[in-house]
Amino acid sequence: MKTRASGVVLVIALLVVWEGSVRLGFVQSSNWPPFSAVLAALYHGIVSGELLSIIGSSMWRMLRGYALGSALGISVGVAIALARPVRLTLEPTIELLRPIPITAIVPPLIFVLGLDDRLKVICIAFATFFPVVTNTISGVTAVDATYLRVARTFGIPRAQTIRSVIVPAALPYILAGLRTSLAIALVVTVIAEMLAGDQGIGHYLLSMQYALRAPEMYSAIILLTLVAYCLNRLFVLWENHVIGWARSREVHEAP
Amino acid sequence: MNSDADERALRIDALAKTFGGKQPVMVFEGLSLDVRAGEFLSIVGPSGCGKSTLLQVVAGLLPASGGRVLLGGRDVTGAPAHMVYLFQQYSKSLLPWMTVEDNVIFAFNHRLHLGAREARERSREHLAMVGLQESASAYPWQLSGGMQQRVAIARALSADPKVLLMDEPFSSVDALTRMELHALISELWERKRFTTVLVTHDVDEAIFLADRVAVLSRRPATIAELVATELSRPRRAVETYEDPRFLALRHRLLERLLRKPEELDAAPR
Question: Which residues from chain B sit within 8 angstroms of residue A248, using beta carbons?
C-alpha cells in the first residue's frame, strides 16, 4: 500500500460500505439513502441545470468576496509591514476583530446589509481578509534586505520597488495566506447562505433537509466536496506557476 | 586640473560611521580619500575593519555619522543616480523571480522608459558584453556562481554608472573563475572608464586591478597607506602577476596587513 492507488481504494471502499449499509439492510432510514440514489439525484440536478445554477451563484458570490478580501488583505498587509504609523493604527483593531467567529457577526450585519448578496460577499471578504493580511505582513517583513538595497542602488522609485521587488519576494507567504483563505471562503459562503437569504448551495442544502429529501441533500454535499477539491487543485497549479521560481531555486541551490 | 569638476570624481571627506546601541562601535572616523575621475581604486584591509560599511556609506545605502561624500563636487544624499553598488552575494542581489534579461532591464528602465523591444535589446547588448547573451531568458539561479556575478556586472553597467562600487564581488567564486572575472571587469573598465572603488581582502586582486591601492587600518579605520600600482595596462592574468613591481607591492602590502595590531595602530584611540 505504497502507491496513490491505496488512497483511491479506501475512498471507493467507504462508498461501497455506504451503499452496502443500505442495500444489506444494516441501516433503514429515509434519511440515509444509498450512495447510488445520491448519485442519481446529483445527475438529475446537474442535467436539469438546477444544481449547476445554484452552485454557480454560490461560486460567483464566493469569488467576489474572496477577491475583495484578498485585495484588501494584501494592500493592508503591505502598508502595515512598510509603514510604522499604519501598523500602530491598524494592528490593535485587526487583533480585536480577528478572533470574532464569522457566524456571530452575521445577525447584526443583516440589520445593516439586508439578506442579499451584499451581506454574504462582505462576510466572505471579512473571513478571507485575516489569513491574507497576517501572511502578507510576515512575507513583507521577511524580504531579504539585499533585494531592497539593490532597488536603492539603482534608484528604483518606491512604488515600483513595492510592485516589482517587495510583493514578488513576499509572494510565497502571500499565496500561503490566499490558499488558507480559499478554504475558509467556501465554508463562509455556505454558512452565510444557510443563515440568510434564499439562494446558493447552502440554502439549497438546508431546504432539502427541511423537505426530508435526503438524496438531494447529500448530492449537494458531494457537489461541494468536488468543487472544493477542484478549487484547491486549481490553486496549487496556479501557485506553482506563479512562484515556481521559489521552489526550483531551492532545488537548484541544495548542495 | 581640478578633478572635482569631473562628475565622476569621488571625494570622501572626514567621513565617520558609528553604530549606535548601548556600546557604540566606531567603525571609522575622519576618513578622507580622493578617488580621481575614471580611476580604479582598491581598498584592502583586515577583515572586520569596516571596508564594506565604508562602501555602503559612500553608496548612500547607510547614513554617515559625520563628514561627507562628494560626487563631482556635489554632496551625495541618499543613493545617487549613476553610482552603482555591486554586491558580494550575487545569489541574493539578482532577483530570482525575474529572468536574467529582466534583471538587467530592471536596473535601467525606470530611467530610460524604453519600449519592450528596445529594453530587451539594450539588456541583451549588456549581457553580450559579459558573454551571456545565450542565457538571457534563463533564471539567475539556473546559472553558475561566476555566471551570476557576470549578470550582476552586466546589470550594473546597464545603468550607465559614473561610479561603480564593488564589495568583494569575486570572493565567492572559485580561483579560475575569479581570474576570468578580473579580466572581464578590467576590460570593461578600460572601455568605459567609470570611476571604480573595489573593496577586497585579497591583496593580489587589489593590486592586479587597480591604479591605486588604499590600505585601511583596524578599527576605527583610517587610510593607513595609499600607493599607486604603476603597472602597465592591459593587465594580463599571467604576466602581471610576475611583474617585479607587482611582487614588490604585494610584499609591502601583505607585510603591512599581517603586522600585529599593536604595531599597526599608529594613531592613538
Answer: 139, 141-142
So what's the pLDDT on residue B38?
92
- pLDDT tens-place string over residues B147-206: 999 999 999 999 999 999 999 999 888 889 999 999 999 999 999 999 999 999 999 999
Fold of B1-82+163-269: Rossmann fold (3.40.50)
Task: Report d(CA A31, CA A43) in Å as an integer.
Answer: 19
In chain A the domains, ranked by start, together with CATH numbers, are 35-246 (1.10.3720.10)
In angstroms, rounded to a whole number, what is the distance separating the alpha carbons of residues A141 and A118? 34
Candidates A199, A186, A167, A191; CA nearest to A79 is A167
Minimal Cβ distance to B142: which of A155, A169, A252:
A252
SS3 B268: coil
What DSSP designation does A121 have? H
What residues in A contact B96, CB-CB < 8 Å?
245-246, 249
DSSP symbols for A138-183:
HHHHTS-HHHHHHHHHTT--HHHHIIIIIHHHHHHHHHHHHHHHHH
Integer Cα distance of B85 and B53 in angstroms: 12
For A198, the 3-state DSSP assignment is coil
Is the Cβ–Cβ distance between B151 and B90 less than 8 Å?
Answer: yes
Whether the pLDDT of residue A1 is over 70: the answer is: no
User: In chain B, what are the domain boundaries?
Assistant: 1-82+163-269, 94-160
Contact flag A153-B96 (C-beta cutoff 8 Å): no
As a whole number of angstroms, the distance between CA A85 and CA A72 comes to: 18
Residue of B110, B111, B164 to mutate, interface with A, max A Cβ within 10 Å: B110
Grid coordinates standing for A198?
A: 434564499
Q: Min CA distance, A182 vs chain B (Å)? A: 24
Question: Residue B3: its pLDDT value, please?
Answer: 43
Tell me whether the omega of the peptide bond preceding residue A157 falls within 30 degrees of 0, making it cis: no
What H or E segment, with its residue span, contains residue A12?
helix A5-23
Give me the interface pTM, i.e. the ipTM. 0.88
Measured between CB atoms, does B139 come within 8 Å of chain A?
yes
**Cβ contact (<8 Å) for A245 and B84?**
no
B219 vs A18: which has the higher pLDDT: A18
